[in-house]
Every structure is written in structure tokens, then in C-alpha cells.
Design a protein that fits this description.
195 residues, 2 domains, two-stranded antiparallel sheet
């Protein structure tokens, strides 16, 4: 990552582009050694925009007969790759991006997998077919109710700066909820600039 960042610095200088303008989205799990070195992405480059994971190339390298259970869920090695991508992206303060869903004719399966990824903390999903883009945008764009609750949490703690815990909508919320709410609001703003 560091070598790539240096190369991008030189390329930007040569072309007159703004330094640091080129962002990096790293596909992090194509080979087994990358899984063992995921921690190296943390603090590796200010250019890092996101971490994505992939199951298809990894399954070829592992020699796996399949990467899915009969019910469509990931088998153990791919759950590990997925989880490490998500955790490392959080540690690196960058966007976690879920892998492709290769059965592009299975719209319902795709929707379920994308919803599960969003539930678990992924903020995007790679598409393998143009028909998947609308579903990705729908699922990973914060909903109006999610934005409203997030705004309420942020405001409540801004109005009560010494509070450690507050009750909002019948739920106990603390500073961890504020951090999550702020991330949701930042994503919503990125999707709809000027909000």
C-alpha cells in the first residue's frame, strides 16, 4: 500500500493532479497470505477509501469445491475473510465493501445478502451486473427513519454534553451510539451533498 501511495504521488505530480486526489479501494482477500496480513492496512495510507473482499479468486487458490453452503451462506473460510475485511476496515477507519454476488439472476438472494451485509456494518457492495446497482443503492443508502433517529441521538448528546447515557425512544443509548449515528449521517450526506 505504501509503495502504491508513493507511485500515485509521483503520477499526480507528473500530471498536475492535486496531491492525494487518487483514492485506493483495496481488494484484500484474493490470496491466503493477505488474510494473515490484514492488519497492515490499518494506517497504511491516507488514500485508503475502502477495503473489499473477494471469495472467487480465494476459492480458486484454496482449491475449494465451493465457497457456499447448500443454503447459500458462506462456508467457514469465506466467513473468516468477510469478517476480517469488515473488522480491518473499521480499524482502518475506512469503508467496508462486501463482495460480489455472482448469481446475478437470483435477485432475491442478492437482496438478502446485501441486506445482511448492511446489517453487519458493510457500507457498500460490489456489483457484478448492472441490475444489482439499484438494489445496492437502496440498501446501503441510509433510510429517512435511520437518519431521523441518528439526528435525534446526536442532538440529544450535544444538548447534554456531560451525559454518559440517555434514553431515546425507549432505548438506552451511549457514546457508542453517537459514533454510529455520526457515521450514518456522514454516509447520508455523502449520498445527498448539501444536506
Amino acid at each position: 500500500m505504501h509503495t502504491l501511495s508513493i507511485a500515485l504521488n509521483h503520477a499526480e505530480e507528473r500530471t498536475g493532479a492535486q496531491k492525494g486526489a487518487t483514492r485506493i479501494i483495496a481488494l484484500t482477500t484474493e490470496v491466503p497470505i493477505s488474510l494473515l496480513q490484514m492488519h497492515t492496512y490499518v494506517g497504511a495510507s491516507s488514500r485508503l477509501q475502502g477495503l473489499a473482499w473477494g471469495a472467487e479468486d480465494l476459492s480458486a487458490v484454496l482449491g475449494a469445491k465451493t465457497n457456499r453452503e447448500p443454503d447459500g451462506n458462506w462456508t467457514s473460510p469465506y466467513r473468516l475473510a468477510r469478517d476480517l475485511c469488515l473488522l480491518t476496515a473499521a480499524a482502518a477507519d475506512t469503508q467496508p465493501i462486501d463482495t460480489v454476488f455472482v448469481d446475478f439472476r437470483d435477485a432475491q438472494g442478492f437482496r438478502v445478502e446485501a441486506s445482511t451485509a448492511a446489517r453487519d456494518g458493510f457500507t457498500a457492495k460490489m456489483a457484478i451486473h448492472p441490475n444489482q446497482v439499484a438494489v445496492i443503492n437502496e440498501i446501503f443508502t441510509p433510510a429517512a427513519e435511520e437518519i431521523a433517529v441518528s439526528e435525534e441521538i446526536v442532538k440529544a448528546f450535544a444538548d447534554n454534553p456531560d451525559a454518559g447515557v440517555l434514553g431515546i425512544r425507549g432505548q438506552m443509548v451511549d457514546r457508542a451510539h453517537v459514533a454510529r449515528a455520526e457515521r450514518i449521517l456522514a454516509r447520508a450526506k455523502a449520498v445527498t451533498p448539501g444536506t
